[in-house]
Amino acid sequence: MNVPKVKVPNVIGKIKDSDLLRTTHRKPSERTEMVHESRLLILSILAIVLYIILAWTIVEVFSEGHMDLQDIIRSSMGSVFALLFAVIIMDTINARNEKRKRRRDERKAIVRHNKIIQPVIDMYLVRKNMVITPNDKTVRKFQINAAFTIKDMKDMFGPSELISDVGKSKLDTYAYYQEKLRENFTHLVEDIDFSYYSDLCDAAMEYINATSYGVSALEAVVGYQGTMAGTKSMKSIIINMIRDEPEKGKFIDAPAAMKNVYLVHQMIKDQETALSKYLKLVQTVIAEEDREVDKKTVSDVDYE
Description:
Shape: rod-shaped
Distance between the termini: 23 Å
Number of strands: 2
Order of helices and strands: HHHHEEHH
Strand order of the largest sheet: 1-2
Structural class: mainly alpha
Helix content: 55-70%
């Protein structure tokens, strides 16, 4: 079934621009810090040179001129170069250690946030897969990327199969958890600078964008459950439309009410793509953290 991409503003680009703006706000402080460190290095070298000159001057005074000026200069230059190399080496080591520390701190922050996000992802996946699976098929609870059509969503208004969702429809619970996941990803992006793991930030932003631009259509489809069109409920009308929709139906040819279903279909596909990227990247970060602390984390969820 051909579902055309809806032309919407390039939000990913816009938000990346805002990230760039945030980075730009941060860069001057980093440049200031580098300038400050460079000045300290220069002042340290000058202080060393002045100290050596002063020391040799004192030696010369107390030696009553018995020392050759050439010997003094030669010895002084040797000492200066030795101390200069020592300062540069120490500065390089400190810079590398600081960079390693910042990367480690960012990684730990990501792992900490992911401990909150991971359970929400699991709950989201189960509800999402119930929405896109008709009653005559088995729900693959933790499937990330699913091959589904508009017609597979015909039973999304039915009651949730989970005891914890009693009294709620599959669509209601999906709407709740996809928004919950968006909130968690938003906190992740806001709280971490992502100087070293920017790809993970991009994956989270892809999910946020897909959700933000699909939420209006989702709210409309959720609203069909309690809306009447004359003597018939909108829910029953939409269900019949979904069942009658041709296999190769197009968004452009669909009735106005069905267009929202097409948009929700596309939103779910975009969310799946973003979530697949996020899970692969975050597992890499977790593996890196585990190597650092010499432990192994075993996931109890088998994603498909």
